[in-house]
């Protein structure tokens, strides 16, 4: 059987994005005659992506199609940012495959001494929580990192 | 198939097929569809009845989805290496050079690490084949796909020698990279039916019978590396852009419109390569499968005085060529352009016909603007004349396409 190896010792981890400040600064200083006193500081206006997206290659956007997680702050039609490279921890909000659908629930890992029970909690009493039995296979699609709400009128 | 199932788990455990352009024929099948006896490449209309009898689901190709997923897979592999070590071969395959890791790492472990990371980050199951040559790596990849005991990763170097011999004798020679149907027939006449047989043939004999390319394949099977990892994008020598129409067209004006679109597409690739083109060929044809219809196929080439990458000139030449070959009274089903006599931009020799450098730089500015707009707003946002307007009758039929899961409107719903 294969062993899992630590990928960090093999390869580079930091890949600067195209709109990385470092590249922007280098470009500016090469092209402008006038050296602005603000040159040291970021000129890209801040980047929403860097707040919402940690691992671009494993990140996906989805749309909340129900109010199953309303008490977790996820409203109908909100956009959720899902990262497949993260592993769920107790209370992580996750996407799960269930009955041919992708559903959102809170991952709960109740520890009682040595024994732990994992279940998937709906944050809305009107929706069902899932309590998998011994031997059931629950496929975690990804872990939610952010929810994006539209507040415009 | 796998891409569709990532975002739509209801497609699992069901007979599903993906159709080619214009929903013509089957290009991908789920295991359940295979069990119904649906063969690769079979025309859609021949299996349509399975929709009612067996609940078959037929999806149109969702290029946006497959392209995005492919980009992610290739980028994930690249994250783990340096750019010079990866050669992207097609939308779903790439070669990777791992020789430099041999001393310190177990390559099979690396292969599993890559496979598992792709499955986790993108949800796509991939198979990995490792070998001392590209041809052997491809062969190992085939075994990884077809023999469950490998769990998706097959390393040529570490397979038990006796088992390996048995597989070589069992695998038909047509599975070797570079050996197609035609070659297999000729090899069969020479008495070579299996990979083992081909691998033990003298490359010189193969070179005489076929070509040096085939001889290299034999040497690669014997463990001699002839094909290096090639990540340098070589400029294409010929650029072709053509499509079959969704509906049959009869009027010259319609053909002008489509040829302008295809020229624009080909021009994009020309610009990407940094090339200019000296000859443009346009062709139009009727549906050769409808033998009851009168048939017409004609092409015409136009030589351009000064090799150019100006889309306006190319499109004008293409339309002129079509006017030259168009005949009324035919139902045209396909058209295309071929850009040839391609050379790198800037290499052109001075000619009496060279354009005024000021006009040149204006045209360059126009082209750069066109590129900037289309790269930001999409390929069809800006084009020449009426050619880019959507809703044209000749656009591809894609009846049952899954949503663009990466667009605002198509985000997958979660409940």
| Radius of gyration of CA atoms of chain A, rounded to a whole number | 21 Å
Broad structural category of chain A: mainly beta
Largest sheet of chain A: 6 strands, antiparallel
Strand count, sense and barrel status of the largest sheet of chain B are:
4 strands, antiparallel
Helix share, percent of chain A: 10-25%
What is the distance, rounded to the nearest whole angstrom, between the alpha carbons of the first and last residues of chain B? Answer: 23 Å
Q: Quick one: how many beta strands of chain B?
A: 12
Order of helices and strands of chain B: HEEHHEHEEHEHEHHHHHEHEEHEHE
How many E strands of chain A? 6
Low-confidence stretches of chain A: 1-20
Count of discrete alpha- or pi-helical segments spanning 4 or more residues of chain A: 2
Description:
The complex is a heterodimer of chains A (153) and B (415). Chain A has 153 residues and is mainly beta. Chain A is built from 2 helices and 6 strands, in the order H-H-E-E-E-E-E-E. A 6-stranded antiparallel sheet of chain A has the order 1-2-6-3-4-5, with no helix packed on it. The N terminus of chain A is likely disordered. Chain B has 415 residues and is α+β, with helices and mostly antiparallel strands. Chain B is 39% helix and 19% strand. Chain B is built from 14 helices and 12 strands. The longest helix of chain B has 22 residues. The two termini of chain B are 23 Å apart. At the A-B interface, strand 1 and strand 4 of A face helix 4, helix 5 and strand 12 of B.
């Amino acid at each position: 059987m294969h062993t899992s190896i630590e990928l960090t010792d093999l390869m580079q981890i930091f890949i600067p994005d195209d709109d990385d400040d470092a590249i922007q600064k280098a470009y500016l200083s090469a092209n402008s005659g006038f050296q602005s006193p603000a040159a040291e500081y970021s000129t890209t206006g801040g980047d929403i992506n860097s707040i919402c997206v940690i691992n671009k290659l494993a990140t996906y956007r989805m749309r909340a199609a129900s109010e199953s997680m309303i008490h977790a702050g996820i409203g109908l039609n909100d956009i959720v940012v899902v990262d497949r490279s993260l592993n769920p921890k107790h209370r992580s909000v996750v996407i799960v495959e269930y009955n041919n659908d992708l559903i959102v629930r809170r991952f709960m890992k109740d520890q009682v001494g040595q024994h732990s029970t994992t279940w998937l909690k709906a944050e809305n009493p009107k929706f069902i929580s899932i309590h998998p039995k011994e031997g059931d296979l629950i496929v975690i699609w990804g872990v939610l990192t952010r929810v994006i709400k539209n507040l415009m009128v | 198939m796998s891409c569709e199932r990532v975002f739509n788990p209801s497609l699992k455990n069901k007979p599903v097929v993906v159709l080619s352009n214009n929903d013509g024929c089957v290009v991908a099948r789920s295991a359940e569809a295979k069990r119904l006896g649906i063969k690769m490449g079979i025309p859609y209309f021949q299996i349509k009845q399975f929709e009612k009898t067996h609940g078959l689901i037929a999806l149109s190709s969702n290029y946006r989805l497959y392209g995005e997923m492919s980009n992610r897979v290739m980028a994930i592999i690249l994250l783990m290496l340096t750019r010079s070590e990866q050669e992207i071969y097609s939308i779903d395959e790439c070669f990777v050079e791992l020789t430099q890791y041999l001393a310190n790492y177990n390559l099979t472990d690396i292969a599993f690490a890559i496979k598992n990371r792709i499955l986790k980050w993108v949800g796509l199951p991939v198979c990995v084949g490792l070998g001392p040559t590209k041809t052997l790596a491809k062969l190992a990849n085939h075994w990884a796909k077809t023999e469950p005991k490998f769990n998706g990763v097959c390393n040529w170097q570490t397979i038990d020698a006796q088992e390996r011999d048995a597989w070589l004798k069992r695998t038909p020679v047509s599975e070797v990279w570079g050996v197609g149907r035609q070659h297999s027939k000729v090899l069969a006449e020479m008495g070579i039916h299996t990979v083992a047989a081909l691998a033990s043939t003298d490359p010189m004999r193969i070179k005489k019978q076929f070509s040096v390319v085939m001889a290299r394949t034999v040497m690669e099977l014997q463990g001699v590396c002839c094909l290096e990892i090639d990540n340098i994008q070589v400029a294409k020598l010929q650029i072709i852009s053509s499509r079959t129409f969704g509906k049959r067209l009869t009027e010259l004006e319609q053909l002008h419109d489509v040829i302008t679109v295809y020229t624009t597409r080909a021009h994009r690739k020309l610009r990407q390569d940094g090339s200019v083109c000296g000859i443009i060929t346009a062709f139009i044809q009727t549906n050769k499968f409808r033998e009851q219809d009168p048939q017409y196929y004609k092409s015409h080439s136009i030589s351009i005085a000064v090799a150019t990458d100006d889309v306006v000139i190319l499109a004008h030449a293409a339309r002129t060529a079509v006017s030259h070959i168009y005949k009324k009274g035919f139902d045209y089903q396909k058209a295309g352009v071929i850009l040839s006599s391609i050379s790198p931009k800037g290499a052109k020799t001075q000619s009496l016909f060279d354009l005024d450098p000021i006009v040149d730089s204006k045209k360059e500015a126009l082209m750069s603007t066109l590129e900037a707009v289309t790269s930001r707003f999409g390929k069809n946002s800006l084009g020449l004349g009426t050619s880019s307007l959507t809703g044209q009758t000749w656009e591809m039929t894609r009846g049952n396409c899954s949503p663009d899961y990466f667009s605002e409107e198509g985000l997958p719903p979660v409940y």
